[in-house]
């Protein structure tokens, strides 16, 4: 009988009653809990809890029962008030604070209306959640506003489309991380994330900075215990630039210099008001600050889209959006990644430091005082001396190579060359009889390559004739020319393959190495995994190491998955359902589509910044350049991530070939092209009862899984190669839409 009772209890738990999604969010926020804390307690991903609160998904047992229990307890502590549930009366408005006003009706676009309808602004301290956004076709409800306030928190907090961040639970940053400043009918308005619009009284740029720090309540809490809160970000529209004495666009000379001249009138205004600029001056991303006093920081970040701050290669059309929509796009990015600190590449690098600050407070000394000390697991506060870098790891012109002859060309035995794939081969006769070329693309490939990867945290140690250790990060000089892809180990078994149809895993161009060359640890480890002996000649080993990028990966993964879920592409979808969900996903919410692109650019750009090259600056070969002064100038970490990403891809290719006899025709970075009878990835990926080949390619949204990139005909491929007289033209570069172009896409 007890078994029957247990079964009944399980049925009841599976249907545990939950409050509506908006109430779930209200209860969590009322107790000061973050989504991450709830996710950790329930042992689920952050995106999962976010989906429950947005109504996109519903929890299932056993998490459903635990989640219901949490909400029941919170409801006892924070019962709903009439203000939490009452609908606004028709055609009524409550007087607002003088520091906050709704956007003028004539200035709002339809999408701005969608982002600002159907909610109420609460009094300070009230934790009610916004009401769900009304459908775009629904009648527009009456606008209501909150009670008067003198702290900048008054004004309408509007419900917004999925993926719109609202103000944080930290009362210091009640109005969110950023604001887009615009001028309408002579009035300066600040559009915040979540639909709030503040009236700005500042008449000059120094006054605007002062208002931002004293009254606007903008910013973002730190991402790590020893870290620092994010400074508020102001995005100035063209109209705001004119209002505050800045040019709408830069001259050619200013654009090349990346900044306004020192004598510009606005810079003089800032100097008179005792504000300072960082060394990069007043450019598209400017930082205006006063030296910190104790723990108090006084710093505001500016972003000027009309100066190309939001590069179209990474942000698409974001720079041309109306203020409310731009605030939403940047607000979602800020809440899920971090407040932008510059380009997506700069932000990707800054995110690493924000998650692993270089220093922390020590334990109290004998006098009870704390001191700054090294934060374990970080890269520290001091850059590695350029001349102490291994010569094999640095790019040409680096100070570590200053003794080389001027026009010396380093070969594989002198230079580490871990780069992404750019490989192609002619089609076989059998492949030419098939009808389609199908491209698949690895989601967030380089982020997945960083996950769980041990990298060096400090300087390298030179070792002669070392014994290879696959767990030791470093660079290894070893001969891998004896590895024969015609016979390799897959798992524990030797398999026979057509090695001539496979790229070498050891070189970016897929060519078989001809002798000793420098490789990162994942590449050498893969040679051993394939069943071949490796005997390094020498190495630069990093004994001080750790999984520095794990938190970085997790933050970007969660940001990507949460935004894709908002666009209707959830994790765990069946293969056919996933392909259907991906079809036109960006068109469902183009603004969130821009966020997805920016998140992906943050991954690639952040890794690229680890080996930033000289940017003019009057640099000469052999001299240090500005980026070398950063602790995060670490070409060895970049090489390790790219090595592991390329090896991960090759491992899947080998597994696929050993099981199906199919070989890739072209590979570009994380895109692979196969010949197939049908136009879909399901026409050649070996799914059985909905399950993918273990260790092979699998369709899905998670980083490391693949999506459909594009399909063209085999005839198209042959015609393109014939037209350009290039039998090995890389078709993966053009598989998406079939257009052959040399346009820069930011890769």
Characteristic key phrases:
five-stranded antiparallel beta sheet; 23 helices; 31% helix; seven-stranded mixed beta sheet
Descriptive overview:
The protein is of the alpha+beta class and 747 residues long. The strands form six sheets. The protein has a seven-stranded mixed beta sheet. The protein has a five-stranded antiparallel beta sheet with strand order 10-20-21-11-22. A four-stranded antiparallel beta sheet has the order 13-18-14-17. Helix 14 packs across helix 21 and helix 18 (550-566) packs antiparallel against helix 21 (590-609). The radius of gyration is 28 Å and the shape is globular. The N and C termini lie far apart (64 Å).
- The helicity comes to 25-40%
Shape: globular
Q: What is the terminal-to-terminal distance?
A: 64 Å
Largest sheet: 7 strands, mixed
Rg computed from alpha carbons, rounded to a whole number of angstroms? 28 Å
Order of strands in the sheet with most strands: 3-2-1-4-7-6-5
- Average pLDDT, rounded to a whole number, is 86
Global structural class: alpha+beta
Regions with little confidence, pLDDT below 50 for 5+ residues: 86-160, 743-747
Number of helices: 23
Strand content: 5-15%
**How many beta-strand elements?**
22
